[in-house]
Amino acid sequence: MNYAVLIFPLLSSFFLTACQTQPVSVYDAPTAPQSRIFKYQQAAASTLVVIRDKGMLGSGCYASIFINGQIVAKLNPYEKANFQLDEGDWIIGASLDGAGLCGLNAPRVERETRTKAGETKVLRVFTGSSGTMDILPTTL
């Protein structure tokens, strides 16, 4: 029997999944230090929590987090930041930040979200197997 036929698909799936980041629960992720959270820290109608996934891909780089085009935080893998926002529409962005390979990342990805008074919304910043960052809602 040709074991290469069995081994190649197993190794391929391992490397593809090993290159993706994994979600982190909002309850498990530590809050980034205040020195890396820059804006939206005053009390407001709603709370936006941004969590960066854990994993090796991009782990040597900060994930810069943007709200309406302004940098608001820099997160390491497995960290979160809480932002106090007024009710309304917001553009949330993320990109890898740093020198070397970190500077070769794709341009900032942005997603629109809407906050409501009294609401806490949680977004996940992750890196897929292609190396591209993205932002999606999460319930973890």
Descriptive account of the structure:
It is a single chain. The protein is mainly beta and 140 residues long. The chain contains 1 helix and 8 strands. It has one helix spanning 3-18, and strands at 46-52, 62-67, 70-75, 80-85, 88-97, 109-115, 120-127, 133-137. The chain has a 4-stranded mixed beta sheet with strand order 4-1-7-8, with no helix packed on it. Strands 3-2-5-6 form a 4-stranded antiparallel beta sheet, with no helix packed on it. The protein is globular.
SSE blueprint and pairings:
Elements: H1 3-18, E1 46-52, E2 62-67, E3 70-75, E4 80-85, E5 88-97, E6 109-115, E7 120-127, E8 133-137
Parallel strand pairs: 1-7
Antiparallel strand pairs: 1-4, 2-3, 2-5, 5-6, 7-8
Key terms:
140 residues; mainly beta; four-stranded mixed sheet; four-stranded antiparallel sheet; 39% strand; globular
Tell me briefly what this model is.
The protein has one helix and eight strands; from the N terminus they run αββββββββ.
Rg, please?
17 Å
Low-confidence stretches: 8-18
Q: State which percent range the strand residues make up.
A: 35-45%
The helix-strand sequence is: HEEEEEEEE
- Protein structure class: mainly beta
